[in-house]
Specification:
alpha/beta, Nucleotidyltransferase, domain 5, 6 strands, 237 residues
Length: 237
C-alpha cells in the first residue's frame, strides 16, 4: 500500500459567483518530489515566492508561467479531480437547512465530494491518501468539524481512504498551487467561455477532458449526497 498526497483548493465561494468548485490533484511520493524540484527554482527565477493564478494572469509572461505549470502537472501528478455546483443549486442548498446538517455549505459539500472521488481512485490502487486542503476559506471551521467526524470513525476513514489531513496556506505547501490553477481556470472557462488573457481555449478544454475527473451537483444529487452522508454519520454537531 502506498500513501498518495492530494492537494485541494476552491474557487468561486464569494457572493455572486456563477459557479463554485473544489479541485484537487493526486501525487505519488516520486511525482511530488519531481514537481517540487522543478517548480520551486522556476518560481524563484520569476521572482515569485509562490504562484496565485488570480494575481499572476495579468503578468507579461503569464502564458509562459501558466503553460509551465500545466506541463508540470501533466508530467508529475497522477490525476486531477473537480467537483462543482452552479449558483442556482447553491441557493437551493442554502434553503434546505434540514440537509445542510449533512452537507454543510457549498464549500464543505464540494471539498468533501472531491475527497470522496480521490478516495475512490486511491482505493482502486489499494492506496491511502494524505489530504492537504487550502486554509483560509470562510467556512473552514465548519469543514474542520466534518474532518473530526472522519478521523473519529473507522467507517469514514475507509470511505475516504484516509491516512491523515491538514489545512495549509499556499506558502506552506507548494503543491496547493496546482489546485489553485485548475480551480481558477475552470471557473473562468464557465463564466467567460475563455481564460482571460489567453488564447488557445480549445487546448485548455482538451486538457481538462484528458486529465481530470469532473462532476457537478444538481438539486437532486446534493439531496442524495446528504442521504449518503447521513447514513455514514457525517453530521454537523
Amino acid at each position: 500500500m502506498a500513501i498518495l498526497s492530494a492537494y485541494l483548493d476552491e474557487s468561486g465561494t464569494h457572493e455572486g459567483a456563477a459557479l463554485t468548485c473544489s479541485a484537487g490533484y493526486v501525487f505519488t511520493e516520486e511525482g511530488s518530489a519531481a514537481f517540487q524540484r522543478e517548480w520551486e527554482p522556476y518560481l524563484a527565477s520569476k521572482g515569485l515566492k509562490w504562484f496565485h493564478a488570480n494575481e499572476e494572469w495579468g503578468r507579461h509572461d503569464a502564458i509562459e508561467i501558466f503553460s509551465k505549470l500545466r506541463h508540470l502537472i501533466k508530467t508529475t501528478a497522477e490525476r486531477g479531480f473537480i467537483r462543482f455546483i452552479l449558483s442556482a443549486q447553491i441557493d437551493s442548498l442554502k434553503a434546505r437547512q434540514d440537509l445542510r446538517a449533512f452537507t454543510g455549505s457549498g464549500y464543505s459539500l464540494l471539498t468533501i465530494s472531491c475527497m470522496n472521488h480521490i478516495a475512490d481512485y486511491a482505493k482502486s490502487r489499494g492506496d491511502q491518501v494524505c489530504y492537504f486542503i487550502e486554509a483560509g476559506e470562510s467556512n473552514q471551521k465548519e469543514f474542520e468539524k466534518f474532518m473530526r467526524k472522519i478521523m473519529g470513525s473507522d467507517k469514514l476513514k475507509e470511505r475516504f481512504a484516509f491516512h491523515n489531513a491538514s489545512l495549509k496556506a499556499k506558502e506552506e505547501a507548494i503543491h496547493l498551487q496546482v489546485a489553485d490553477l485548475v480551480s481558477w481556470a475552470f471557473g473562468r472557462m464557465y463564466n467567460e467561455k475563455r481564460i482571460p488573457g489567453f488564447d488557445g481555449f480549445e487546448d485548455w478544454k482538451a486538457w481538462y477532458r484528458e486529465g481530470h475527473t469532473i462532476g457537478g451537483y444538481s438539486d437532486t444529487s446534493f439531496q442524495i449526497q446528504a442521504m449518503v452522508n447521513a447514513h455514514d454519520g457525517m453530521r454537523l454537531p
